[in-house]
Design brief:
The protein has 250 residues and is α+β, with helices and mostly antiparallel strands. Among the domains are: 1-51; 101-149, Membrane-bound Lytic Murein Transglycosylase D, Chain A (Roll); 171-228, Membrane-bound Lytic Murein Transglycosylase D, Chain A (Roll), CATH 3.10.350. Helix content is 32%, strand content 9%. It is built from five helices and six strands, in the order αβααββββααβ. The chain has a two-stranded antiparallel ribbon. Strands 2-3 form a two-stranded antiparallel sheet. A two-stranded antiparallel ribbon has the order 5-6. A hairpin with a 2-residue loop joins strand 2 (134-135) and strand 3 (138-139). It is rod-shaped and about 185 Å long.
Length: 250
């Protein structure tokens, strides 16, 4: 009986040992499988398995090379500068300082005084240089007529005598009369054409008057000259010499 019980305990112990061994073996296999799985996962993560992997470790990043790509230039329409049209100015009504000028009478010109006022001219000078349009002291004009318009500085000539007791070189004003020349003015005032030109041009330069006077510049009636007097020896008049022819001796 005791032997039978002993065998039963031994059999139970063996079964229990085999059962424990199976559990241990199963646990070892599970551990091995887990380790193998972890290794494979690690290999895959590092890119050593099948080309995949997670970037768990820093790798050298290649420096990109800058490639200059030319930017296409789109042609644009260049604005064309349109030249500004400059209108030709209408001829001014201001007369030139050279003296009288021709003027065509317009439809709205009714009187000579109206034309003289338009150009700032002296009416008496206007009438004196347009005798063809003056009758009985009245001026008659019509559209299309061509009249002479004097410069604003022109005045009626006056007879001027050499002032007495003037110091030689004293400069006097002379208003040009009809037919006057530089030589005749110089002779009348006992002056010289050169000094008259010099003094007159000095005055014109100071006043901004053009043109300047020269030996070939024509003189206009009413023009102002600056004349230094008593600086030249008067030209003696020609004396008639009587020639006595001896009578024949009888």
């Amino acid at each position: 009986m005791a032997q039978k019980k002993s065998q039963s305990l031994l059999s139970s112990y063996r079964k229990k040992s085999r059962k424990n061994s199976s559990k241990t073996l199963l646990l070892v296999l599970v551990v091995i499988l887990i380790i193998a799985g972890l290794v494979m996962l690690a290999l895959w993560a590092t890119g050593n398995l099948g080309g995949g992997g997670l970037q768990l470790f820093a790798t050298d990043t290649p420096t990109p090379t800058m490639t200059l790509t030319p930017t296409p230039v789109t042609p644009t329409n260049t604005a064309t500068v349109t030249p500004t049209i400059t209108e030709t100015p209408t001829p001014s009504l201001t007369p030139t300082l050279d003296g009288p000028f021709d003027y065509v009478v317009q439809e709205d010109d009714f009187y000579c005084a109206q034309i003289a006022e338009k150009f700032g001219a002296d009416l008496d000078v206007f009438l004196s240089i347009n005798p063809d349009y003056v009758t009985g002291g009245n001026c008659y004009i019509k559209p299309g007529d061509i009249v002479k318009v004097p410069a604003p500085w022109q005045r009626m000539p006056t007879s001027t005598s050499v002032p007495t007791e003037l110091r030689p070189g004293t400069v006097v004003d002379y208003i040009v009369e009809s037919g006057a020349t530089l030589d005749s003015v110089a002779q009348f005032f006992r002056s010289t054409p050169e000094r008259i030109i010099a003094e007159t041009n000095r005055y014109r330069n100071a006043e901004g008057i053009t043109p300047l006077l020269s030996e070939t510049t024509p003189l206009f009636i009413g023009e102002l000259l600056k004349v230094p007097v008593n600086i030249a020896t008067p030209v003696p008049s020609a004396t008639v010499t009587r020639t006595m022819t001896p009578s024949p001796t009888p």
